[in-house]
User: What shape does this take?
Amino acid sequence: MSSLFVRPRLPWVLLFVLGTATTAEASPWTLREGQLVLSAGFNHQIASQEFLDDGPAQNFPLNGYLNASSFSIGLRAGFTDNIEFEAVLPITVVNYQADPVILLDQPAGSTQTALDYFQRNVLDLSRSVSGVSDFIFAVRYGWLRTPFALATELRIKAPTGYERPAGRPRRPPAGCSRRPAGQRSRFEKRSRRAC
Assistant: This one.
């Protein structure tokens, strides 16, 4: 019975909160001189497909799955009424999972048991990396506030040493083709080898 009384009140509470909210300072409005704003954000991405240069989306090999999360903390400061500075520092966690694969057959004269040999020769492309991502610095200049807001922004993104997960290369090495021999064009058959 208590849920009967709570549900009708929820829309009114939300309406009250939205109706009493103060004005927000967001792009393209620049902060007034001396104002500081601390912000935080969270971004989560998942993917099981990738887009390559040569065609539509295709599944990651070996049942691959990408899971990435980023938490960012930022600071905006009004230098004058029309000039604002912003700095953002994101912390990122990237996780790529794929099925392990065994590329080599056990040699005929091996003294290891089959289980030992295959356990030692498993290629696992799964990786997890975390750290500080690219630092972002921005300068924003506000041209107009009324009758509409207009601002220009210069944004600089600087690497901080974040290590990307290794595993699948983005581009094939020079002189190599990603497509199997039967799917290559006449030009590729003559000029490129499969790698």
Q: What stands out?
A: The longest helix spans residues 2-19. Residues 40 and 73 are 4 Å apart (CA to CA). The chain is about 15% helix and 40% strand. The helical segments are 2-19, 114-120, 186-191.
